[in-house]
Design a protein that fits this description.
CATH architecture of the largest domain: 2-Layer Sandwich
Number of helices: 13
Helix content: 25-40%
Radius of gyration: 22 Å
Number of domains: 3
Bound molecules: zinc ion
Largest sheet: 5 strands, mixed
Strand order of the largest sheet: 5-4-3-6-7
Structural class: alpha/beta
Number of strands: 12
Strand content: 15-25%
CATH class of the largest domain: Alpha Beta
CATH superfamily of the largest domain: ATPase, nucleotide binding domain
CATH topology of the largest domain: Nucleotidyltransferase, domain 5
Length: 414
């Protein structure tokens, strides 16, 4: 397996540009030491097209801080090599404007099959799919992913072989993989960006570990971000440009999609709403603070509350028990307090709820909706829909498949 110039590491967030902003001069020649700068610029352009695409040349120029002529030359190089493709912008879409109609640049999709990995705090799901997103086979298992990183990675590799066997396809037909991880991922290092969340993973390069175990180049992403991608492609967000996807399971994370694009923040770690403090004297959280949202509300907390009654939160019938409906509605209202504040800040079209808590039925979603209606300002709240996922807990897995299918040709094994 090779590492390519365009993807210097096998993890998803491609290497950032040089520490300082890209030089505002034409790209250097490709020999000698200046070639390094050229290679880094190419890598940065490829990463931007992959992560933010489809994008126009002018958007790339602005974002990377290069003159339009330099960007155009680099784009022409990538087009000649078949790494990217271009298509006319649709009316009113990104990149269109006055003057000559813009064309939008995308990464060329790999041929063959792709694999998706969804790591939750307590589960692993794996699928093999066509590059168009049709799932051929899928497997899942329960595991303490937080505390057993090595076991989780081994288990994921085993599940991949199981789904390949189920689908009746050899590994050699799978061209790329993507894995969603339930932790903030640093766009600078491609590793878990917090020493306290998913602590057993902090010293690992998960993309490289998966590549070593599966033989596949593997893109990493945050699980909620992949959930949002799944919803945008297959679910409730297909026609949305501004929405918040919330994965509420053992942890609570969010993906912020603004103007049709995932907002990652300066280091790729935006959306950690589970660590919003809602009670300064509340329970200790895994992050080291007290009273975080996810220390107060999670599927584990609900399970512990209902256990004395013999109720299982993953059993829909049990969740109609009068006590369960109260516990779920209250959980939803608590999550909704944080979401209401986000609605005031971002004014999204919709909030889409995923994860195990959203799969318990309508009471959790109703609770979130109550808080948004009562606590967000009337303007933002009035137009914001609060919806459960329509993907039955598979948004993250489907998003990983979509992400793998969008992998550049440069990710392919030799
Ligand atoms: Zn916390």
């Amino acid at each position: 397996m090779r590492r390519t110039q365009e993807e210097p590491a096998s993890h998803a967030p491609a290497s950032p540009p040089p520490a300082s902003p890209a030089p505002a001069s034409p790209a250097p020649a490709r020999d000698g030491s200046p070639a390094t700068a050229h290679t880094l610029l190419r890598a940065h352009l490829v990463a931007m097209i992959r992560d933010d695409g489809p994008v126009s040349r002018s958007e790339l120029s602005r974002a990377i801080g290069l003159p339009r002529s330099t960007t155009t030359a680099l784009v022409a190089e990538l087009l000649r090599e078949g790494l990217i493709t271009e298509a006319p912008a649709r009316g009113g879409g990104v990149g269109s404007g006055s003057g000559r109609p813009a064309t939008l640049l995308s990464l060329r999709k790999p041929d063959g099959l792709v694999a998706g990995f969804d790591f939750g705090h307590r589960h692993i799901r794996v699928a093999v799919a066509t590059k168009e997103g049709q799932i051929l086979a899928e497997e899942s298992t329960q595991l303490d992913v937080d505390r057993q990183a090595a076991d989780a990675l081994e288990c994921a590799a085993d599940l991949l072989h199981a789904v390949l066997e189920s689908a009746g396809v050899p590994l050699s037909e799978v061209r790329a993989a993507a894995a969603g991880i339930p932790a903030p991922l640093s766009s600078r290092t491609g590793r878990v960006g917090s020493p306290t969340i998913l602590a057993s993973w902090v010293d690992l390069d998960p993309g490289e570990e998966l590549r070593r175990r599966t033989g596949l180049p593997c893109i990493l992403g945050n699980d909620a971000a992949f959930g949002a991608l799944g919803e945008m492609t297959h679910g409730a967000a297909r026609d949305l440009r501004d929405f918040i996807y919330v994965k509420a399971s053992n942890g609570i994370g969010a993906a912020l999609v603004l103007n049709g694009r995932l907002y990652r923040g300066s280091q790729g770690m935006a959306g950690e709403i589970g660590h919003t403090q809602i009670d300064p004297t509340g329970a200790w959280c895994r992050c080291g603070n007290r009273g975080c949202l996810e220390a107060t509300v999670s599927i584990d907390v609900v399970r512990r509350q209902l256990e004395p009654l013999g109720l299982d939160p993953l059993n829909p019938e049990d969740m109609e028990h009068p006590v369960a409906t109260k516990v779920l509605a209250e959980s939803g209202r608590t999550v909704g307090v944080v979401i209401a504040n986000l609605c005031n800040t971002l004014n999204p079209e919709a909030v889409i709820l995923g994860g195990d808590l959203a799969s318990t039925g309508a009471h959790f979603t109703d609770g979130v909706r109550d808080s948004v209606r009562h606590l967000a300002q009337p303007g933002p709240a009035l137009d914001t829909s609060v919806l459960p996922t329509s993907l039955q807990g598979r948004a993250e897995l489907l998003g990983a498949v979509v992400r793998a299918a969008a992998a550049p040709q440069t990710m392919l094994p030799v």
